[in-house]
Amino acid sequence: MKAASWMASISLQALFLTGLVLAPTYSWAEAKDQIAQTGDRQAVGPLHVPSPDWRDQIIYFVMTDRFDDGDTSNNDQGFGEYDPTQRGRFSGGDLKGVQKRLDYIQGLGATAVWVTPPVENQWLDPATGYGGYHGYWASNLKKVDRHLGDLKDYQSLSRALHGRGMYLVQDIVLNHMGNFFNYSTDFDPADPVKSYRPFTNSVPMQAPTQYPFSLNDPRRAEDRAAGIYHWTPDIQDLSVRQQELNYQLSGLDDLNTENARVRRALRESYAHWIKAAGVDAFRVDTIFYVPPELMTDFLYSKDKQAPGITHVAARTGRDNFHVFGEGFGMDKRFDDRVARRINEYLQGPNGEVRTPGMINFPLYGTALDVFARGRPPAELAWRIDTMMALHPRPHLMPTFLDNHDVDRFLSGGTETGLRQGLLMLMTLPGIPVIYYGTEQGFTAQRAAMFAQGWGSGGRDHFDTNSPLYRYIAGLTHLRRSNTVLSRGTPKILAGEAAGAGTLAYMMQDGLERFLIAINTADHEVLADNLDIGAAPGTVLQGLWAMTGQAPLLVVGENQRLTTRLPAHSGFVWRVTKAPPLPVKPGAIAVTLAPLSREPITTPSLIVRGQAAPSARLKIVLDGNLAAAVAVTADAEGRWDAALSTAAMTDETITHRLTAYDEARGQASPAETFKVRPNWRLATQVSDPAGDDTGPPGAAYHYPTDPSFAAPTMDLRGLRALTAGGALKLEIDMGAISQVWSPQNGFDHLALTGYIQVPDQTKAGARVMPLQRGVLPDDMSWHYRFRIHGWSNALFSHDGASPTNEGAKSGPAPSIQVDKEAKRITLTFPAAAFGNLDTLDGAKLYLTTWDYDAAYRSLEPAAGAYIFGGATSASDPKIMDAIGPIVIGGSK
Asked: Where is this region: Disordered (predicted)?
């Protein structure tokens, strides 16, 4: 980046005369020096400590079983539950392993550690064949699971954290226990005995070991009368609130939280961990599955025998015990329904506090779209504004880019995108959460950090010199050194609406103001006319840059800041309080003639304006300096230019145009317009019903879990429409499932498409990564998309192999789902395929399967979450397919 050329007139002497002191960009070296200074902190501290200001904390989230193994003697309890070669079994991580790595965690800049539920679990679930290694299948809420250690180990971890000035966050569950019984869908609500099915082969216990949760058999009069559980089957439709609250989530036995006896038992159970283990905060799992009123009781009950959690915590000196809930759900772009639902758990109808915080899933969803999928930053700008206006305590809402329930960012996004997302987390309100392994570039959702654990690749991953570890440590140092970043209020200054590009916002706290600017595009952009509310000549001091140094910036004569942002960059500046520098008076202002308010339907747009005579200008469309049109004003300062609109394919997008006089550091006020593209039907094919049984000659079967139901993977037809180099695919399905309330509008379906672009000079790939197949009919692919309920990734063929998906590319398509019509529509902008003029002659091969952190397993016999019908270990993971078809041709 470089400042405008008039900056050259500012002398070094002038900077000294103003009294301005420039601090260097925050770096790994500074963060490492701070880490070294904390090395002499005592390893053992008190069990109980006062609460911190949670706005300033940074949380490191570990899945304990997958983090580190500090005691190998507790790994195998002899029930077949321990098997590090299997993703769904115990790997051996424990509480001692977490304590062993506190230097590593603190060195990253984290101030708190969040552990998955340490309570005694059901070790093997016979219904699914998976294990409770993760901690969410409780059998006793007051005991430490033997695989993780014992109470003394937990207390030791707590003391070690407190001795370092750090805090302990425990994951808890209020909604359910393990999977010890189930019902068929023909159950009778009036007769809990009918259709009741206990799992007598559950390992190692057949029922919870803690009273009253052990009262789980309605065939016994005492259990039935106690009403500890909802005697219900699995959730079939999450859109039905009664099912969400009272039915079983994935077979997990649903607690009757309306029952006062259950509520008291939950308060007593989790109060135990505050008193006995010194826990400082709770994260509440699956909070949408319990009524919001439960949180009022759980936190604030005045029951003398079993008081609410806040009262218990206060008795240990924790007057600010933090509790935040997991409301899993992402809003679609420019929609806030999930965010408003989150508010129901944050406050009651009269504004009273229910839960102090909620995990900010809507921000995560939009950040993922922008930083991993190439969506316009305007969507994220809107989300930031909305969260600040809507939520009562946004500073107490944990923010994240990775966790154990969603795909890793790097499974579909680039490292550059991850770095930009992390910069956003560390410079916005909210409590940043770093999921273990993100700092080591993990792509697998629950892989182990230690060599002996599942998915580790046979080596430890605690490298404090890894690039991402160093990058995050520098960012946490920046945040912790400047409370404006944790306590301030953001003001959006720019958000590119047409595609990847500029996101700029100011963080303000009193007189302290920081400017954050990010360019998500792969080209240089112009960030023009940023209103930072400062006088002409105000200096902005560079504090942080993703690469290199952040340059000095000075506010222009028009009280606006205009600068250039390199491709894939990110910067942080402080607005200094030094007296403004003298600013050279500008010449004739650059102007742009008003544009039509009606959508443009022609392939080109003529624009005109005024500037200084003979001025050389760049006409910048949607911030893209790389594609700017160069013009020179005539002797009277008049200029005009023709701009192509061929690549503009979304009529909902508002495009932005400005004229930039680089020599004078001026940009005209922007003009906006919309384009109405001309979509044409290029190809239409149908596909037989009921052929979702694998490749020709195969007899594949859907997984047996009730949430899977044919024909969700049955393709019925496809229409391909083009507008220049843009592509719209209208895909007809046998059915649309939304049982898990998926972000993208459909689940139990992964659409994987392979596209060969018309340019035959480009060599493609034939392999179908991770699907164990090769494209038919000698087709090769240049671009590949993988889309399911929670992911939307586009790849190029570079580096593709049977185990490598290729190079991350973008932008990914927009997704629209019409459940009634059973139609999924994917719209790819021309930029997705290299901005070709036409797609005529391109080829497409489309397949279906299902995906959960990886393409689901295919075995000879189907299981709860396993496809059946394999005859060999190399059978392709394809349930149904269309193609290859020619875009603009025939099948």
From this structure: 71-92
CB 177 within 8 A of CB 248: no
Q: What is the pLDDT of residues 14-70, one digit of tens each?
A: 443 334 444 445 665 666 665 554 444 445 899 999 999 999 999 999 999 999 999
End-to-end CA distance of the chain: 49
Rounded Cα distance between 333 and 327, Å, is 18
3-state secondary structure of 369: helix
Residues in the chain: 891
Positive or negative, the CA dihedral 871, 877, 878, 884 is negative
3-class SS string, 664-687: HCEECCCEEECECCCCEEEEEEEC
How crowded is residue 24: how many other Cβ atoms within 10 Å of its Cβ? 11
In the chain, the domains with their CATH numbers are 5-28+488-575 (2.60.40.1180), 47-175+257-487 (3.20.20.80), 591-673 (2.60.40), 680-886 (2.60.40.1190)
- The pLDDT tens digits of the residues spanning 691-706 come to 999 999 999 999 998 8
- Per the CB < 8 A criterion, the answer to whether 35 and 304 are in contact is no
Contact 295, 183 (CB under 8 A): no
Q: Name the pairing type of β-strands 124-125 and 130-131.
A: antiparallel
Q: How far apart are CA 257 and CA 297, in angstroms?
A: 10
**Residues of 823-852 as b/e, b for ≥16 C-beta within 10 angstroms?**
bbbbbbbbbbbeebebbeebbbbbbbbbbb
Phi, psi torsion values for 354, nearest 5 degrees = -100, -65
